[in-house]
Design goal:
Elements: H1 32-35, E1 42-45, E2 48-52, E3 69-70, H2 73-79, E4 83-85, E5 100-102, E6 106-108, E7 115-117, E8 138-139, E9 142-145, E10 151-153, H3 156-161, E11 178-182, E12 192-196, E13 204-205, E14 244-247, E15 255-262, H4 279-282, H5 288-298, H6 307-319, H7 330-347, E16 361-363, E17 377-396, E18 419-434, H8 436-443, H9 446-466, H10 480-499, E19 507-514, E20 517-524, H11 535-538, H12 542-556, H13 564-567, H14 602-605, H15 617-621
Parallel strand pairs: 4-18
Antiparallel strand pairs: 1-2, 2-5, 3-4, 6-7, 6-8, 9-10, 9-14, 11-12, 12-13, 15-17, 16-17, 17-18, 18-20, 19-20
Helix pairs in contact: 10-12
Length: about 625
């Protein structure tokens, strides 16, 4: 990572190749540039703090020469882009890296206690030390943000002087300098004291600065600052929302909005990649002759794909459009994307009829799947090859993007771009479904619906609390079917981490839970050496799968925290779990689609008082 240039970038002797001597501040893994340290996030490197710059300044580090182009048409169409790009990696051919800016700018010196912008300490070039004391400077622990996603410096001057004045021209006109010290009496905010040498005000502690209305009482509102796009960048539409104080390292400062898709036929063989920038134009034509004319002009000769194959791909796109809506919303189109994946996982895609470039191979197992019928499991499929693309669509601050329909997501750049950052995973997996007839009868029982309703109500309260307008909070996805599939996926991952030799963090679930879907895909979710060892697919053979499911169910029957775990009336975050804890079914966060909520192993195995509550209760009784 390198900070952005303060002046025009120099060029090499040939005048073509850019050259610079910006120091590298640290390293992050490629996946972290999407999930943890994406555009707009704060990153701590040693004793310094930076914000990852927007994509506008990444024209070189994210260029096609530095960053691999990734194609996934179904996801690109959903996000209205042409393609995706992997973050630049130093171990590849990257000569630059991710650009960062110093943020926050306010720093303090632990020796002289001065609190001022970094440049005012007159640090030596390339170092972050006090020019007088020669000790490392400490970046401000506090920043402010609004629910629209803007981020700014904490207003120390107004906090000390208790002044609502936001006029930058008058800040510091008292003639004094700010100082910050810690009393050392406690570890609370009361021990952090800020003062001004003007002598007109008393020193003030930071206690109370995290109150929801602390800055609103000073009549301070958001000015729309977007430091990841430039130190002086502000939202042209303005803002004016209330500000909230946050710790610099808080998870609320940056929350990614990630969307993913599996590569499935007819897009999974890579043949359509050369047409990535032309699909939107091709969709406007209904006449094959017009399409042929367009392709001839676009490629100045012969198109990489035959015309009949292009027409088949266009028909496949139209089939994925949600029915019943003239202009379907994003959520409806994303559900349609999942529906197509579910259909393809059910039908399979035999490797023998495809080229080596095929990235999705899903076959029926060799064994007899009827032996799984006593378990209520049907249609197991061996996904021998799969590819998943996860794209960073945008990000939010303070508000969870999954909790409300009216959240404002922050853009990754100032100008519209036809690409987004993404990462790809290639691996293997096992897909299985639950018997629809048995599932329908089970999920309609009174005990099951009452137990899930308890979880759904708790989750809905959480969503309404996180939403700015509770009436626009998204409905909780908790249903008996969803909670059952979710918990089953967790116990299978735990079991396979023991049987197949995969660390649980390298496995991931993908749930297909709706009125017309009842399946779960467990697949390798890492791009390192644990990505595809072959052991996971072998676990999908009916004989091994039967043994694994029975072992996982019996293991879930008891927890080292029982009876407290099983008898808990609320568990997990805000009571969104029931019989679930870290000793039984919870997984690493990278493995779970729903952040380890909406779990209940009682729906698998029942309770001591009501064994029939569990979908697999009959298995334990036999």
């Amino acid at each position: 990572m390198t900070p952005p240039p303060g002046r025009r970038r120099r060029t090499a002797a040939d005048g073509n190749t850019p050259a610079h001597n910006f120091p590298r501040r640290g390293t992050v893994r490629r996946a972290q540039a999407i999930t943890t340290y994406g555009v707009g996030s704060l990153i701590a490197v040693d004793h310094e703090s930076f914000i990852v710059s927007g994509l506008d300044e990444a024209d070189r580090s994210w260029s096609k020469g530095e960053s691999k182009v990734v194609h996934e048409r179904r996801l690109a169409r959903l996000l209205d882009v042409d393609h995706f790009r992997l973050p630049p990696a130093s171990e590849d051919t990257s000569k630059d890296g991710l650009r960062v800016r110093r943020f926050p700018l306010m720093h303090s010196c632990p020796e002289c206690n001065e609190l001022q912008p970094h440049r005012d300490f007159s640090p030596p070039a390339g170092r972050s030390v006090c020019g007088t004391c020669e000790v490392d400077l400490v970046p401000s622990r506090f920043v402010v943000a609004c629910e629209a996603g803007h981020l700014d410096e904490f207003p120390y001057w107004q906090w000390v002087h208790r002044s609502p004045d936001r006029d930058a021209a008058r800040i510091g006109k008292c003639g004094g300098k700010l100082r910050m010290r810690t009393t050392g009496r406690t570890s609370s905010l009361r021990s952090i004291v800020v003062s001004c040498t003007c002598g007109q005000v008393h020193e003030v502690s930071m206690e109370g600065s995290f109150r929801r209305n602390a800055l609103k009482d000073l009549r301070l509102i958001c000015r729309g600052a977007r430091p990841w796009l430039g130190l002086s960048a502000t939202d042209p539409a303005g803002c004016g929302l209330p500000l909230r104080t946050l710790q610099r390292g808080s998870s609320s400062v940056w929350q990614p909005v990630l969307k993913s898709a599996l590569s499935i036929p007819p897009w999974s063989n890579g043949r359509a990649d050369p047409l990535a920038e032309h699909w939107d134009a091709l969709r406007q034509f209904d006449n094959p002759d017009h399409i042929a004319i367009y392709l001839k002009g676009a490629f100045k000769g012969e198109c990489p794909l035959p015309l009949d194959e292009v027409l088949a791909l266009l028909d496949a796109e139209r089939e994925e459009d949600p029915d019943g809506e003239a202009a379907p919303g994003f959520d409806h189109r994303y559900r349609a994307l999942r529906n197509k994946e579910y259909e393809r996982l059910r039908s399979g895609n035999d490797e023998s009829g495809h080229s080596r470039d095929e990235q999705f191979v899903c076959e029926t197992p060799l064994g007899d799947p009827r032996m799984l019928q006593p378990l209520g499991i049907t249609g197991p499929m061996l996904v021998k090859k799969l590819r998943e693309v996860r794209a960073l669509k945008s990000f939010t601050r303070l508000v969870d993007a999954e909790s409300t329909t009216d959240v404002k997501e922050m853009s990754l750049s100032q100008k519209p771009l036809r690409w987004l950052p993404a990462m790809e995973v290639q691996g293997e997996g096992v897909f299985l479904r639950l018997d629809e007839h048995r599932l329908d009868a089970w999920e309609k029982t009174t005990a099951v619906t009452a137990r899930v309703e308890h979880m759904r109500s708790a989750h809905q309260r959480v969503l309404e609390q996180r939403a700015d307008d509770p009436s626009r909070a998204v409905p909780s996805p908790a249903t008996p079917r969803m909670v059952l599939l979710h918990t089953l996926a967790h116990v299978l991952i735990n079991e396979w981490s023991l049987e197949a030799g995969y660390p649980s963090a390298s496995l991931r679930e993908r749930l297909y839970a709706a009125d017309d879907m009842a399946g779960v895909l467990v697949y390798t979710a890492t791009s390192d050496s644990a990505g595809s060892l072959g052991g996971l697919v072998a676990q999908g053979e009916p004989k091994l799968l039967d043994r694994t499911v029975r072992s996982a169910i019996r293991r879930a029957e008891w927890c080292s925290s029982d009876p407290l775990c099983m008898e808990a009336e609320a568990a997990g975050s805000a009571g969104t779990n029931l019989a679930a804890c870290h000793a039984c079914v919870m997984l690493p966060e990278t493995s779970c689609e729903h952040n380890n909520i909406l779990l209940d192993r009682a729906l698998l195995v029942g309770t001591p008082e009501d064994p029939a509550l569990g979908f697999f209760g009959a298995v334990l009784a036999s």
